[in-house]
Design a protein that fits this description.
- There is one protein chain.
- The chain contains 2 helices and 8 strands, in the order H-H-E-E-E-E-E-E-E-E.
- The chain is mainly β.
- The strands form 2 sheets. A 5-stranded antiparallel beta sheet has the order 6-5-4-7-8, with no helix packed on it. A 3-stranded antiparallel beta sheet has the order 2-1-3.
- Strand 5 and strand 6 form a beta hairpin.
- The two termini are 31 Å apart.
- 17% of the residues are buried.
- The mean pLDDT is 87.
């Protein structure tokens, strides 16, 4: 990932910024240009809650090279309080003990690093509440 892309995505990547449709109130993360519910093109920027619950998840046992030291790990789709959904790695727990409907909270952690001395990429993960 390039530094320019990281800079453009800093709002949603580091502050969980989303867009709420002014027409119907639907929350989009990341933001969109047109609401798929009502067709409106007017949005307001909001900050998503850091609390939510797991809608579904999967346990990764054969990871990509950047995450071999973390296996097994879980990736979940989380519905946040107040609207919006995110997909995030679940940290600080045994993936075999996760449950659908489990309460979680969003935390910011190191996601990966470009080589031994390269750029460190940070983003959000979820942990059991």
């Amino acid at each position: 990932m390039t530094v320019a892309r990281i800079w453009r995505e800093r709002g949603r990547r580091y502050r969980l910024e989303a867009a709420r449709c002014k027409g119907c109130g639907k929350v989009f993360f990341p933001g969109r240009l047109v609401c798929d519910k009502c067709g409106s093109r007017e949005f307001e920027e909001i900050r998503l809650s850091d609390k939510g619950k797991i809608l579904t998840y999967t346990v990764i046992r054969v990871p990509p090279p950047a995450h071999t030291y973390e296996t097994p790990y879980a990736v979940a789709i989380v519905e946040l309080e107040g609207g919006g959904r995110i997909t995030a790695m679940v940290a600080d727990c045994d993936p075999e003990k996760l449950e659908i409907g489990q309460n979680v909270r969003v935390v910011f952690r190191k996601i990966s690093q470009d080589g031994e001395k390269g750029i460190k990429f940070y983003g959000y993960k979820v942990v059991p509440a």
